[in-house]
Design goal:
The complex is a heterodimer of chains A (about 350) and B (about 325). Chain A is an alpha/beta fold. Chain A is built from 14 helices and 13 strands. In chain A, the strands form three sheets. Chain A has an eight-stranded mixed sheet with strand order 2-1-3-13-4-8-6-7. Chain A has a three-stranded mixed sheet with strand order 5-9-10. In chain A, α12 runs antiparallel to α14. The longest helix of chain A has 26 residues. Chain B has about 325 residues and is mainly alpha-helical. In chain B, about 70% of the residues lie in helices and about 0% in strands. In chain B, β1 and β2 form a beta hairpin. Classes of the chains: A alpha/beta (about 350), B mainly alpha (about 325). Chains A and B meet through α3, β7 and α9 of A and α5 and α11 of B.
């Protein structure tokens, strides 16, 4: 009798203590949520997974909803961090509550490549003027003499050129049209520079990088622009492009880094935030001889003033991405940050959380 | 003591409903009315919310928005006529193809062409088409359907290029693959509801027709089809509504080009696909324009449904002789 009551009491005590401690154990887990650009998603997802594996009590969630939606979520304060291929413009920065503040950090970089569908997958060299005319809708057949002249060994089909573009508004389009608008005034005037632009009506639109990639693969005589990482992953042919110096350059880690090394960051601070460096920079038409012409950074957006505990976790995560994380970048089709950029980002990272 | 031998059969004689029956009736009525009211409120709220967010765009673009043909975010010029055209054109094509096949399937399954058990199996298979996710239809379109129709499309364009329907070459995505996939997507809706419509026709009607000496096809075309017409029309209206609102598969297959073309092989665009493509990255002004476009899509769907109901009523009066 006494034993039974003892057992019962012990059981009750155990249950009680279990109940008491359960919420505590749970509360120790920190959740970071972020959303934004789909271009760096594969890389950020890998960082998040590896980082959580090392720090068992931290969960990082990143949703690829698009740069614009990421910025909207950031302004609405529904995320801990956001990501955008086009950073944020001054207007958007002004909308972030002043007591929160903004820090913009370039985290990785990528290239935009031209993929195509020609019989036998020949290597394709595209001179600047030819590429420009194709995307202006002026050059419409593969049987063009300028194309033949640049690629004497290629037997072009008697096909029209089907240009595949992004149908959704996207950072990839922003970067690609940025380059063309830089290189040609006519393109800037007729098509424009932006996340979605006024393409010629004969172009075919497909959603997302994988949509464009699939459409090119399925359409004989097609050409279109996709992220280097996606082309690499699907094993699609990539055109060799002529850069500003007149050289023909293949996309890849080295040519991408050569392009980004020429980036000159603005000297001032972010508008409205004194002391926060402005790390928004584009290299729309890099000068270097080895530089691949279309490369860009992609940014993470953070609040400057926030709860110190969370800020520390955020800083740890970014720190991890800047060091360990950069190692997985080239394998996945991204360009690791050049050393000078990395140093700038590390400096700016100290501002997150407001603790100097 | 002799017990009632039928006690286990008849336990209760007919009697006026008890107070509890009334209470249950009343409660059920209230729940149903409440549910209906909630649906109405929800629709009203959606329209209000869309209208509120679209208001700045409505004020600044006005009705010109509906007849503009450009969607240029950079210059803040927005017009959705090509999308309205593409939405209606693709849905009508899909309704035409899917409608013919859907009703044909319903006739095949209900008019004793097949053993009853076999026809149930077929019906289940057709209904399973509805369970396939939209994005899978999109991929199927890209990888299977487009290569399949390309030779035929090229031949049509080369031979009948002067005919507006075949006026352009099929580049890949375009109106034809989109409409075909849409037709497959609305097929289960049209077929399943038409099957129900045919099954609802009393058996005596068919017997009477045969009794008058009709052949099987006369019975089907002149008696069964008109009698089931209101149900079939309802099926078509539902299918059309589904086609109007389909998003993902169309965004993948229609080519998303803002142009108005009669050609079946030209890329086009629809309202739903415009919304799906542009929303994630849209800035504030574009979001307002998109809300305006969503409002237009809602209005089109509403008009189509009202028109459909009206045609259905007229048809019922004509074929079934009801007032």
């Amino acid at each position: 009798m006494a034993l039974a009551s003892f057992t019962r009491r012990t059981l009750a005590a155990c249950t009680l203590s279990a109940l008491a401690f359960a919420p505590l154990a749970h509360a120790e887990e920190t959740q970071l949520t972020g959303s934004g650009a789909s271009f760096p998603f594969p890389l950020y997802a890998k960082w998040a997974k590896d980082f959580s594996k090392k720090n068992k009590d931290i969960q990082v969630q990143y949703q690829a909803v698009g740069s614009g939606a990421g910025i909207r979520a950031f302004i609405a304060e529904t995320v801990d961090f956001a990501a955008s291929d086009a950073a944020m413009n001054d207007e958007e920065i002004a909308k972030v509550p002043a007591e929160k503040g903004v820090v913009l950090l370039p985290m990785t970089a990528g290239e935009v490549v031209l993929s195509y569908n020609l019989p036998g997958n020949p290597e394709l060299k595209l001179p600047r003027d030819v590429m420009n005319d194709i995307f202006l809708g002026k050059l419409t057949t593969w049987q063009d003499e300028r194309l033949q002249k640049a690629n004497p060994d290629v037997k072009f089909p008697d096909d029209d050129i089907t240009v595949v573009r992004r149908s959704d508004s996207s950072g990839t389009t922003y970067v690609f049209t940025g380059h063309l608008a830089c290189a040609s005034d006519e393109f800037k005037k007729d098509v424009g520079h932006g996340k979605s632009v006024d393409w010629p009506k004969s172009f075919v639109g497909a959603p997302k990088n994988d949509g464009v990639a699939a459409m090119i693969k399925q359409t004989p005589g097609a050409i279109g622009y996709i992220e280097y990482g996606y082309a690499e992953a699907t094993g699609q042919p990539m055109a060799t492009l002529q850069n500003k110096a007149g050289e023909f350059v293949k996309p890849g880690e080295a040519s991408g880094q050569a392009a980004l090394a020429s980036a000159e960051f603005p000297s001032g601070d972010l508008p409205g935030y004194e002391g926060t460096p402005d790390l928004r920079v584009w290299v729309c038409d890099p000068e270097g001889k080895e530089a691949y012409p279309i490369a860009t950074f992609t940014w993470m957006l953070m609040y400057q003033h926030q709860d110190e505990e969370k800020a520390k976790v955020l800083r740890d995560f970014v720190e991890y991405g800047l060091n360990e994380g950069q190692k997985s970048a080239p394998k996945m089709g991204y360009i690791p940050l050049p050393a000078n950029v990395k140093a700038k980002v590390e400096e700016a990272l100290k501002l997150v959380g407001g603790a100097e | 003591m002799v017990s009632n031998p039928f006690a286990h059969v008849v336990t209760k004689f007919s009697e006026p409903p008890s107070a509890s029956d009334y209470a249950v009736d009343k409660a059920l009525r209230m729940i149903v009315q409440g549910a209906a009211a909630v649906i109405l409120l929800l629709v009203a709220y959606i329209i209000f919310e869309l209208g509120r967010q679209a208001l700045p765009a409505i004020l600044s673009f006005g009705p010109g928005f509906l007849i503009g043909t450009d969607w240029n975010v950079q210059e803040k010029v927005f017009g959705i006529l090509p999308e309205i055209w593409g939405t209606l054109y693709s849905s009508l094509l899909a309704l035409f193809i899917g409608g013919i096949f859907g009703v044909a399937i319903a006739i095949f399954l209900t008019q004793d062409f097949l053993d009853h058990r076999l026809s149930n199996v077929f019906r289940t298979i057709v209904e399973m088409l509805a369970a396939i996710p939209s994005v899978v239809y999109g991929l199927w379109g890209i990888y299977v359907l487009i290569p399949l129709i390309r030779p035929g499309a090229e031949w049509l364009h080369e031979t009948f290029g002067w005919f507006p329907l075949f006026g352009t070459d099929l580049a890949g995505p375009g109106m034809a693959p989109a409409a075909l996939v849409l037709a497959v997507m609305i097929l289960p809706t049209v077929a399943a509801i038409s099957v129900d419509a045919f099954r609802r026709v009393p058996y005596k009607v068919k017997e009477a027709a045969y009794g008058m000496g009709t052949t099987r096809w006369e019975a089907i075309m002149k008696v069964m089809l008109p009698t089931a017409s209101s149900g079939i029309l309802a099926a078509l209206v539902l299918g059309f509504g589904r086609a109007l609102g389909e998003t993902m598969a169309l965004a993948m297959l229609i080519g998303n080009s803002n142009q108005i073309s009669l050609s079946l092989f030209a890329p086009a665009n629809t309202l739903a696909s415009l919304l799906a493509s542009s929303f994630p990255e849209a800035g504030p002004v574009e979001v307002q324009a998109l809300m305006y476009a969503a409002l237009a899509l809602l209005a089109i769907t509403l008009i189509v449904n009202v028109l459909g109901l009206w045609i259905m009523k007229a048809a019922t009066r004509k074929f079934e002789g009801k007032a």
